[in-house]
Every structure is written in structure tokens, then in C-alpha cells.
């Protein structure tokens, strides 16, 4: 069995147009924010359902059908399956990617795991992910997918565990491990560490938004566009940026 795991629904129509064989699985999470506690997977899913329900005013029950059901398709996969994970380079994508890879790491039996990155982008566009990719671009990316060996899956599991436990020291050490399977790993991990600076310093996203407000238009659409240009490495959507923006505005 072949599985194609997409990071969100935005890519689904273009993916279907490619005509690749295999089952499509959609990751509908934003693990870059919110409570990640839970010693077991069911406990973790309950934590995420509560958080997302409160943050986005959605019924907790929706999490089971929108998220857990998709993950269960992976957890019940057959031996010797192939998994192709379509994820970008930024922190939003990486957090989700590490989580999925941790699930695949724990699967028994043989498996082939590949990551499909937006390899069509040049160095100045890397944080745009698959947003503007055409069907031909996506086929190019698939042809350049990276196969993950066992040691990389082990590193993925360690990265997820450190991220989930907010073990910033461990995450910093892991980010120094160079791997072609994880481009921009050091930069992305540093961007996350910068969200939790030393005492007396402002978190990097808050600091950036404050600078944007002070130097240009302060309305949210303008701030969101400027933040996305300056800090695309985070991969934040408008909802994540809006929470930080409101916090900065309220603090004066």
C-alpha cells in the first residue's frame, strides 16, 4: 500500500490532479501551537481536541473525524507500506512532520518512508512551501523525494519528543545534527528556540510584530503580510499571527 500524507487540505485538489497511485491522508493539525501534553497517544489526542476546540471554537468531536481518523489510517497500515510525506521546510510544517514520523517510527514491520519537500523553490522562496506550486512543480518535487533511513527516523522521533516536551536544550543539540533529509534544520529549530528567550527578552515573533507596527501600517492584514515576508520560517497562518498581534496591541 502507498500513502501520500499531505500537510493540510490546501494541496488536495492539485495532488489529485497529479494522478499518482495510493491513498491520500490529510494532516489537519497545527502542532506549532498549544498544549502538547499526554503520555499516550489517546491522551495526546484528547489534549489537542480540547485545545483546538477552545482556540477555534469548534466542537471537540470534530477532532476525531478530522484528525484522529486520518492518523488511524496510518496506524492500521499494512506491512511493507510506502509513505510519502508532503511537507514544507518551515516550523509549522516541521512540527507536524516530526509528529507523523514519530508515529511511523513506532509502526512494526517493514516500511519505506519518503519526504517530498517543495524542491522546486529557489533559495529566496523556500518558506513559501507548496502554495504556488503547479501540478508540474509537484511532479518535480515527487521525483526528488528523499528516502529516510532508519537513523533519520530515529532522529525524527528524538526531535518530536524534544519539541513535545519543550526540551529546548535537547532540541538545540539535535538541530546540530546535519542531515540532507532535514534541510534548514538548525535555522528552524533556532526559530523555535527564539520563541522562548532568556528572561527579560521578548520572543522573536512578538518582537518582529512590534517592529512592524512601529515602522509601518498597524492594521492586521498589513502586519500579517509583513510578518510572513520577514518571518516565513515560522509558517504561521493568520490565526497564529493574530493571537500574537492581539497580545502585542493589548500590551501597548
Structural summary, described in words:
The chain is built from 11 helices and 5 strands, in the order βαβααβαβαβαααααα. The chain has helices at 12-18, 41-56, 61-75, 91-106, 135-143, 150-164, 168-174, 185-193, 204-215, 220-230, 238-251, and strands spanning 2-6, 23-26, 81-86, 111-116, 146-147. It has a 5-stranded mixed β-sheet, with helices on both faces. Helix 4 (91-106) links the parallel strand 3 and strand 4 (111-116). Helix 10 (220-230) packs across helix 11. The longest helix is centred in the first third of the chain and has 16 residues, at 41-56. It starts with a strand and ends with a helix. The relative contact order is 0.11.
Question: What is the compact description of this entry?
Answer:
The chain is built from 11 helices and 5 strands, in the order βαβααβαβαβαααααα.
